[in-house]
Structures are given as structure tokens and as C-alpha cells.
Amino acid sequence: MFIPAAGYCSGNNCNYVGSEGFLWSSSLCLDNPSNVYNLIFFLNTIDIVKNGRCNGFSIRPVINL
Asked: Residue 59 — very low, low, confident or very high, per pLDDT cuts 50/70/90?
């Protein structure tokens, strides 16, 4: 299994494709339910942050068969 560095889309623009990954979690932020936690990674960094649910992030990892 791998997690693609698919970047993210906002409106008609796709950003960081091939260099960063943004993945949704299933957990809403209790302080603001319009946000959700997501995993981000780039270079040697992995972090969990809050983002608006309107952003176009990847949903799941990919299995290479």
C-alpha cells in the first residue's frame, strides 16, 4: 500500500501534485464542525492538521497489486 502525493485541488487549481500528500480523516473538529482533521506529508514531514471540508484532498491510500 502507498499513499499518493496527489496534492490538493481548490477551485480549478491543483497544487503540489507529486510532492505533497493530503488525506482526510474521519474525525470532525469538535471546536468547529466545518473542519476535519487530515494528514499531510511532504519531504521528511508528517503532520495532522485541521482543514475545511470544502478542500479537495485525497480520500484513501492506493493498493498496488
From this structure: low
Contacts of 55 (CB under 8 A, 6+ apart): 8, 9, 10, 22
**Whether the model pTM is above 0.85:** no
Among 13, 22, 59, 56, residue whose Cα is nearest residue 40: 22
Distances (CA, A) of 47 to 3, 4, 38: 14, 16, 8
Q: How many CA atoms lie within 13 A of 23 on its CB side?
A: 15
Locate 2 and state its grid cell: 502507498
